[in-house]
Amino acid sequence: MRIILLGPTAVGKTELSLLLAEELGTPIISVDSRQCFKHLDIGTAKPSKKELSRVKHYNISNLEVDESDSVQDFVDRTEQWEKEILKEHDHVLYVGGSTLHLQSLIRPVDEIPSANEKNIEQLEAQIEESGLNTLYTKLQEVDPVYAQKMDGMNRQRIIRALDVWMQTGKPFSSFHSNEDFELPENTLVFGLQRDRQVLYNRINKRVNLMIENGLIEETKKVLEMGYSPDCQSLNAVGYREIIAVLNNEMELVEAIRKVKTQSRRYAKRQLTWFRRWDFIHWLDADENNPGELKEIILSHLAANPQKP
After folding, report:
1. What is the mean pLDDT of the chain?
2. Dihedral angle over CA of 227, 229, 235, 237, nearest 10
3. At the topology level of CATH, where does 2-111+186-303 sit?
4. Distance of CA 227 to CAs 65, 188, 230, 232, Å?
5. Residue 225: DSSP 8-state
6. Can you give the C-alpha Rg of the chain in angstroms?
7. Across-strand partners of 198?
8. Fewest Cβ atoms closer than 10 Å to its Cβ: which of 3, 128, 221, 263?
9. What is the DSSP letter of 96?
């Protein structure tokens, strides 16, 4: 049985996933677009070393900071891992909140053309000549849907979206349709939810803890290792703002405020996406502790035996 546990950032997926994985005796595959990169631990809210020692995890710290990654790369990795896991276990447990990665587990990824090197060079040259904002304005013109969904002016994503548009004449967002589709057999999807204000308070607290636990030092160390601040992995909420602080482009107080705001907006986008999926079994994390939530999931599993 394939089990997917999803939810917005900071909702509380980690402890529940560990309890569930321990009960089922199965590993966890992280469905996160940033936890797969090495050295980026605090800013991606990776499970701690103690938590990782409790349950084997896949898709955690398996890529270098400067490696490129895509949803299709994620699909290719997880297909192999899932086969390996199901040889020895009855269940495979996916846990995370990255929307396109989660969708790829449920429906085939739309065939998106590979990067066109000439387009990439042209777009990079435009950035050098007139700045990233010029390309972002162009993206808003040709693909306002994707521009609105994106978490700020992400250089790699802007270039990728415009490259696809240049090749196909179609907006990048059209390849990520979220139309109704059926859940595959032997798959159950559970979603964690909380009161919106409670969730936002948890997000704010998490950001404060990231700073206290060394997000600035972590970011500085990665840059001192020689990695470019333009790496795909560092173009993410948290790292992007701290890099600006290290470059004396932003005050720390303002950076923290921006990280909190962007994280709350991201959570809102996640929830909007998930609400379109009527096959999610929603679990109330305000009303039930992780142990009780685990039992609710186990009862669903017992009521939905695997089909041969």
Report:
1. 93
2. 110
3. Rossmann fold (3.40.50)
4. 7, 39, 8, 11
5. T
6. 20
7. none
8. 128
9. E
- Asked, colleague to colleague, whether 2-111+186-303 and 117-171 share their fold, the answer is no
Query: What are the structural domain ranges in the chain?
Result: 2-111+186-303, 117-171
Count the residues in the chain. Answer: 308
Which range has the worst mean pLDDT, 27-31, 131-135, 204-208? 131-135
What is the pLDDT at residue 113? Answer: 79
36: which 2 tokens? 């797969």
Measured N-to-C along each axis, helices 239-246 and 252-274 cross at an angle, to the nearest 10 degrees, of 170
Distance (Å, whole) CA 43 – CA 73: 22
Cβ(65)–Cβ(231) below 8 Å: yes
Question: Ramachandran region of residue 226, left (φ > 0), alpha (ψ -120 to 50) or beta?
Answer: left
Chain segment 166-180, per-residue pLDDT in tens: 999 989 888 766 556
pLDDT at 138 over 90: yes
Scan for tokens 């390849």, then name that residue: 175
Q: Phi, psi at residue 54, to the nearest 5°?
A: -75, -40
Question: CB-side exposure of 103: number of CA atoms within 13 Å?
Answer: 20
The whole-model pTM stands at: 0.84
Q: Give the percent of the chain with pLDDT over 90.
A: 76
Strands 92-96, 187-193: pairing kind? unpaired
User: What is the phi/psi pair of residue 147, to 5°?
Assistant: -60, -35
List of residues 6+ apart from 152 with CB closer than 8 A? 237, 240, 262
For 265-285, what is the mean pLDDT?
A: 94
Q: What is the CATH class of 117-171?
A: mainly alpha
Distance CA 16, CA 294 (A): 6
Report the candidate in 49, 37, 8, 1 with the shortest Cα–Cα distance to residue 193: 8
CA-CA distance, 117 to 308, in Å (whole number)?
46
Q: How far is CA 304 from the centre of its chain?
A: 28
DSSP state of 93: E
Which of 6-20, 101-115, 162-176 is modeled with the greatest confidence?
6-20
